[in-house]
Amino acid sequence: MTRELKLTAVPSPEGTATHCPYCAFQCGMALSWDDAGDCHIVGNPAFPVNRGALCVKGWTAAATLRHPERLTTPLVRDHSGKLRAASWDAALDRMVRAFRSVQQQYGNDAVGVFGGGSLTNEKSYLLGKFARVALRTANIDYNGRFCMSSAAAAGIRSFGIDRGLPFPVDDIAGAEAILLVGDNPAETMPPIMQYFDAQRASGGRLVVADPRLTPTAQRADLHLRLMPGTDAALVNGLLHILIRDGMVDTDYLAQRTEGFERVKASVTTYWPERVERITGVPEAELTRTAHLLGTAESVMILTGRGAEQQSQGVNNVSACINLALALGLVGRANSGYGCLTGQGNGQGGREHGQKADQLPGYRRIDDPAARRHVAGVWGVDEALIPGPGRSAYELLDSLGQDDGVRALLVMGSNVAVSAPHLNNVAERLGSLDFLAVADFFLSETAALADVVLPSAQWAEEEGTMTNLEGRVIRRRKACGPPDGVRDDISVICELARRLGAGSHFEYGNVEEVFDELRRASAGGPADYSGITYARIEDNDGVFWPCPDDGHPGTPRLFADGFPTASGRARMFPVRHEEPAETPDDEFPLYLTTGRNLSQYQSGSQTRRIAELAEISPAPLAELHPSTARRYGLSDGAAVRLITRRGQADFRLKVTRGIREDTVFVPFHWAGKQAANRLTNPALDPTSRMPEFKVCAVRIEGLETLDAIDQQTGTHSTTTTER
Ligand SMILES: Nc1nc2c(c(=O)[nH]1)N[C@H]1C(S)=C(S)[C@@H](COP(=O)(O)OP(=O)(O)OC[C@H]3O[C@@H](n4cnc5c(=O)[nH]c(N)nc54)[C@H](O)[C@@H]3O)O[C@H]1N2
Ligand SMILES: Nc1nc2c(c(=O)[nH]1)N[C@H]1C(S)=C(S)[C@@H](COP(=O)(O)OP(=O)(O)OC[C@H]3O[C@@H](n4cnc5c(=O)[nH]c(N)nc54)[C@H](O)[C@@H]3O)O[C@H]1N2
Ligand code: SF4
Ligand SMILES: [Mo]
Predict the structure, then answer these.
(1) How far apart are CA 160 and CA 177, in angstroms?
(2) Burial tier of 11 (Cβ tally within 10 Å: 0-12, 13-18, 19+)
(3) Which domain holds residue 250?
(4) Looking at the structure, do residues 323 and 193 belong to the same domain, yes or no?
(5) Is residue 164 domain-shared with residue 297, that is, in the same domain?
(6) Distance from Cα 602 to the centre of ligand 1, integer Å
(7) Which of 33, 78, 254, 467 fits a disulfide with 9 by CB distance 3.0 to 4.6 angstroms?
(8) Are 190 and 55 in contact (CB under 8 A)?
(9) What's the chain's Rg over C-alpha atoms?
């Protein structure tokens, strides 16, 4: 199916300034159209975060807009099980009937909503309100649970607030030493490397803890090649050395923190020899790192998904926070703890109520004062707002079960590729009474749906995003959506109307949704009440919290105190616990998963872009040469990876850049090459984050390459059977 999609550009001589559709760096870019109607993208040098730089995904993002596989009409599954084009009326009708009938039969909570961190603030807010007010279900969660939840939980319990970076990215350039724990920004956020490069150019040092020698680790002064799942031991070991050698900031600890004595006692057993045994990082490297951090004037400790996506993810982050507090870094110039948020609106998406346990403004849904405030803004009875619902994986695991979710709306996630233990998730999705998916492409999840709604995307809509620094920015509309496509905001409002809650969903435009969000967030931890579209426009974005119109916003947090009961940061003792699964005779290697530079997430967008597919056409399983030799496997061989949950097939990339006991695969592909057929859904007890980064695996050679299904990501919209 090849066809031309017509776009109506919003006319502007220099192009329209907006932001990239992908990651949390939210690079500023300008879109313009030539006479032939082709869209061109250039980095926006005036936007102070990327300063004109883009990565290959940003450069090629125009291809998403007029892509021949764009959905331009709703699809409804017919009696023979095929998805067929339908009118909006028919599709929305079918949804409302299905939601009503499931709720009548099984109760309100039997309808679930699954959102995403790529949705704008306005959409995230409205989706949460839709679940609570129109569907009256407790069961809404989102893919950020798979992404930011461990760092968020640890940040909140120590600092009283979760803003990924409590300082602008600019500060990175001025840090004398940086420790990156499980982050690979050279591939996952390339333009941020200009700040790391500037840091090293002025004499700063970089230490990277990663089981792989990533492009980021290649730029480091020191690479700590730790065993997967041993982050807490590593970081406790660093703190042990710093305490032993008298390098902690005792004044800071006394004045600004609580709980240090217990932490100190808990790290006494993490002496370097033991930590070397647990982590595989040589004692000399531990000591060198600790002394580097202990002697530098300014130090940053940053975590990524490597440390966070574990069943010990919260503890791992807490160990890093303990280290940062012990060194007196938090709130000091060019210093502190931060996490590099992942998705485009991974930060805002976790603040405005699409999380199971949360109301807008980063309020807790079980906090009576928060409920009262938000009920007031929504004009509903406080008692009608449901309580906390199931977390993302638990929600997916409940699908079709007796007391579980029987009808689901997915907006902004491709769970059929990105959720852990996919074989189980596929079975659960298949057992639903009803599935609706809103997307711009027929993602693997949409292909399973009973109703598919074609959505407008980034450059076709207005809204705000909150980048990794907590800077609220404008996503500006640069062109109209293709005919037949609607924006998610108007779809949510229309569904609410059809469900009888229309009076709570009357907005003249997207800015009015934002204005309501501001009021709902007022007084909450993520207070947006002083942020307006106009102020964002005038200031290249505004940092939250921003509690009133005259407030300048808050680029840097914690200079004077912490929003905790005592005003001090709280330290929590952390013990190294093994991952839920470790290698044994049957599954002798560690499997870890993550990302490639030129593919994004479930690949639903980027696998469809020719330039990106050319750079990265299929996933490669990385294995160390000596391990490959042991199994008689060579570079390029076809292999099968097998875990207790499933198997998947890959070509092998033999590389010295990985530990001998570890295999790595990227998760951007579907079908037989889906890494998540292998991954372990063991959850962190606090954040409910699945253990994407560690499980036990066996590797077998395959005779032929036939088993490898290239998975270009294309589907025929009329033949997909459920
Ligand atoms: N190109 C590209 N960029 C992206 C994305 C994408 O899909 N593609 N996604 C965006 C999103 S949503 C996110 S969340 C970010 C993620 O950004 P990152 O966190 O940088 O990405 P990952 O590759 O998931 O994980 C980082 C590193 O963790 C390492 N690792 C694995 N196991 C362990 C462990 O046990 N301990 C430690 N310390 N490290 C370990 C991996 O080897 C990997 O190099 O990227 C964002 N940017
Ligand atoms: N094995 C393994 N699995 C992982 C991870 C890992 O490291 N390893 N990382 C996890 C992480 S950090 C993340 S963030 C998740 C991400 O995994 P997913 O949630 O699957 O993320 P995306 O691929 O971004 O899916 C977004 C889908 O929504 C659509 N979409 C995007 N924006 C919009 C919008 O505004 N409206 C609508 N209606 N649709 C939209 C896109 O086309 C796409 O199909 O994957 C997780 N899964
Ligand atoms: S770094 Fe992220 S925001 Fe910037 S161009 Fe690449 S994907 Fe887009
Ligand atoms: Mo993420």
Answers:
(1) 26
(2) exposed
(3) 149-339
(4) yes
(5) yes
(6) 13
(7) 33
(8) yes
(9) 24
